[in-house]
């Protein structure tokens, strides 16, 4: 009996939390209603718990009867005309999930009950933001998302998973898996920046732009600085943020492929991030740029098939070159390859090395220096873009900060090789 009392209390607490979010959402709408608030959801959760108890100890079909009665009540409320708000599909699903929360608590699946309750609360509370976000989705976004579904869910299972070609340098499955990985990370940044849009401060916009495409963000913000030179400091901050966030993004991508190798990059990447973080902190404390609304950079959707195919081709070429260099013993050829590849795509070379590092002919030390060199060359490329397209104020700031970032990377490489 004491256990049952605990189950009832826990169920009532979870139901009350769900009902609180539900009632708050109803009161926040333009047309508030009074259907299914804190009290009702608390009752439903307790009913689910007691129904599970009765089914186990007394009447085997007690819980199904509880579900049927609650469902019938909801259907009646939706059909019969009345003064207060009628339950919709969300209310129906929330009610049944609340019942299940109570039943899960009795079945001693408390963690699952908490996860279900938390998910239900988040979805109920995100009603208006989700509606606003979906209204901003374009037909182009939908097409690109469907293309990503094809890239990850249709094409990936069909490609062969075996080494092909000279030096066994081409594996179709591994290549396409890298496409899915990078496209997924880029799309996460793209979705985030589409959700916050121009409401975000310039620093947050730069960070999210860097998650989607640091090169595209650098290009967009540099052009904006020439159009609005008075805001050069703000746009320089956005460029620095986009270029700095590239480093942890590469760490995450390589960590998903080779966790041990990613750990070897933590120190050099952390050192390279210091100039950008220091500049961001200095500007933030001095001018508080969060008051300036961010201009969303003109980023293309990273999930197009054309983008995926281009990355797959580049990754295949880089992976083949890495295999050939290792097979022929041209270990020092890996560094020039990394520098050139970093000028075009940082992800391709870092993932290729992460997948194949640690062989007899490409030691972990050489592999780490190769990825750091690629990061240096990529940073130099973005510095060149900013200097070529940005305003005088932006050129000076980016030259100093990103120049310092590249110098730190080179200094670490020289230290590591000595």
Distance between the termini: 71 Å
Count the domains: 2
By secondary-structure content and strand pairing, the structural class works out as mainly alpha
Strand percentage: under 5%
Give me the strand/helix succession: HHHHHHHHHHHHHHHHH
User: Helical proportion?
Assistant: over 70%
Using the CA coordinates, give the radius of gyration.
27 Å
Give the overall pLDDT as a whole number. Answer: 77
Number of strands: 0
The low-confidence parts are 289-294
Query: Count of DSSP helices?
Result: 17
> Major beta sheet, specifics?
none
What coarse outline follows from CA principal-axis ratios?
Answer: elongated
List the helices and strands and how they pair.
Blueprint: H1 2-28, H2 38-57, H3 62-79, H4 89-106, H5 110-125, H6 127-136, H7 139-158, H8 172-196, H9 202-227, H10 232-257, H11 259-264, H12 266-287, H13 305-328, H14 334-344, H15 346-356, H16 364-389, H17 392-417
Helix pairs in contact: 1-2, 1-4, 1-5, 2-3, 2-4, 3-4, 4-5, 7-8, 8-9, 8-13, 9-10, 9-16, 10-12, 10-15, 10-17, 12-17, 13-15, 14-15, 14-16, 15-16, 16-17
């Amino acid at each position: 009996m004491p256990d049952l009392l605990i189950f009832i209390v826990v169920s009532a607490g979870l139901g009350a939390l769900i009902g609180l979010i539900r009632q708050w959402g109803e009161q926040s709408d333009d047309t508030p209603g009074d259907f299914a608030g804190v009290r009702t959801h608390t009752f439903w959760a307790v009913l689910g718990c007691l129904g599970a108890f009765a089914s186990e100890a007394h009447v085997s079909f007690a819980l199904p009867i509880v579900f049927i009665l609650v469902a019938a009540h909801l259907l009646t409320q939706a059909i019969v005309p009345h003064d207060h708000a009628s339950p919709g599909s969300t209310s129906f699903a929330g009610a049944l999930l609340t019942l299940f929360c109570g039943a899960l608590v009795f079945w001693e699946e408390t963690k699952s009950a908490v996860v279900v309750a938390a998910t239900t609360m988040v979805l109920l509370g995100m009603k208006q933001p989700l509606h606003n976000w979906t209204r901003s989705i374009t037909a182009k976004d939908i097409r690109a998302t469907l293309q990503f579904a094809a890239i990850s869910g249709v094409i990936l299972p069909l490609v062969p998973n075996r080494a092909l070609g000279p030096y066994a340098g081409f594996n179709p499955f591994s290549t396409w898996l890298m496409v899915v990985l990078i496209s997924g990370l880029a799309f996460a940044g793209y979705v985030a920046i589409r959700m916050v849009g121009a409401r975000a401060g310039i620093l947050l916009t730069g960070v999210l732009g860097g998650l989607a495409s640091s090169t595209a963000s650098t290009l967009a913000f540099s052009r904006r600085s020439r159009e609005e030179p008075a805001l050069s400091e703000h746009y320089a901050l956005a460029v620095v943020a986009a270029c700095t966030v590239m480093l942890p993004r590469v760490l995450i991508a390589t960590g998903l492929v080779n966790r041990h190798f990613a750990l070897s990059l933590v120190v050099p990447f952390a050192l390279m991030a210091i100039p950008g973080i220091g500049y961001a902190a200095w500007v933030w404390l001095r001018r508080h740029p969060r008051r300036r609304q961010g201009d969303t950079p003109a980023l293309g959707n990273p999930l197009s098939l054309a983008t995926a195919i281009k990355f797959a081709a580049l990754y295949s070429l880089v992976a083949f070159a890495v295999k050939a260099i290792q097979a022929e013993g041209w270990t020092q050829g890996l560094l020039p390859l990394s520098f050139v590849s970093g000028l075009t795509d940082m992800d391709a070379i870092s993932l290729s090395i992460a997948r194949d590092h640690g062989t007899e002919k490409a030691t972990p030390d050489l592999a780490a220096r190769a990825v750091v060199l690629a990061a240096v060359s990529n940073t130099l490329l973005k510095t060149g873009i900013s200097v070529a397209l940005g305003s005088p104020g932006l050129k000076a700031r980016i030259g100093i900060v990103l120049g310092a970032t590249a110098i730190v990377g080179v200094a670490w490489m020289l230290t590591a090789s000595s």
